[in-house]
Amino acid sequence: MTDDRHEFGSSETERKLDCLRKYLAAYSIALKNKNLSRIYIDAFAGTGSRTETRAVLPFMGQGEEALVEVSTPGSARIALETQPPFHHVLLIEKDARRAAVLERLLKTYPDSRAHVRQGDANQIVQHVCKRYHWHEERIRGVVFLDPYGMEVSWSTVEAIANTQALDCWYFFPLSGLYRNAPKDQNKLDQSKIDALNRVFGTSSWMTDWYKTDLQEDLFGEFKADMRRTYDVNRIEEWVAGRLREVFKGGVLKPMRLHHPGGAPMASLFFAVANPNPAAAKLAKDIAGHILKVGI
Ligand SMILES: C[S@@+](CC[C@H](N)C(=O)[O-])C[C@H]1O[C@@H](n2cnc3c(N)ncnc32)[C@H](O)[C@@H]1O
Fold it and tell me: What is the pTM of this model?
């Protein structure tokens, strides 16, 4: 027997997947009569399902509460079930076991034009973005970037934006940023700096987020420390600004998701690569409606 389980996320994960589900459905309907090929690219596809452990109340309040495992659709299944269907679905997954589960899943959708690529999302997405002549070949699509942490490199974000044809949902890891950008700049080591530079494609975050802070010690002496002055709200705005530099169709205010204890976990961004005002407006109208409804 194979292990198809994939436990990830929290109760907030459903909010994120619901945004994707609603967008893919509205997108497919909006484009269906436009003589365009629609592609969906799931860069961090997982297994297609999400395993959740839920507490079940005993029958008629008798006996002990039981825990049961439930499998709900993950992003890949949501995309495969979208109607009208995408002309092409590309599922990328680095982990061999999960990629094999995806292969088996595709057998249950024999009519879909979908395939699995096992490997690194950064390499594969960049390759795919450069391979197609998106506008000449009349291809449009949606990319979902749903990493666990800071796995998406800026060159991937840029490649998506440069297609001028893809809409991008990016589950941006705020927790990862905190871990890599401590308040005290002395605690920033080279591996943290490298991780942030890779995610943002620039080191300007350091000069923007950190400022000199003069602290008076017990003897009245002043000591200059570099401290991060940007809190989570300003960091989120900074990230939106960075995305706006490359996504010419615009970037919406994201939806914030939280850890069970209430700490910010991630921001779900929606960005449009197509600079055409009518196309960008259509995409942002749909996603804007969904993000507001989801908040
Ligand atoms: C949060 S899960 C994705 C969940 C999925 N979107 C869903 O809704 O079911 C992140 C996935 O990315 C995969 N992953 C991590 N690093 C990767 C990389 N560099 N390239 C491709 N996949 C990667 C992990 O194995 C994991 O399955």
Answer: 0.93
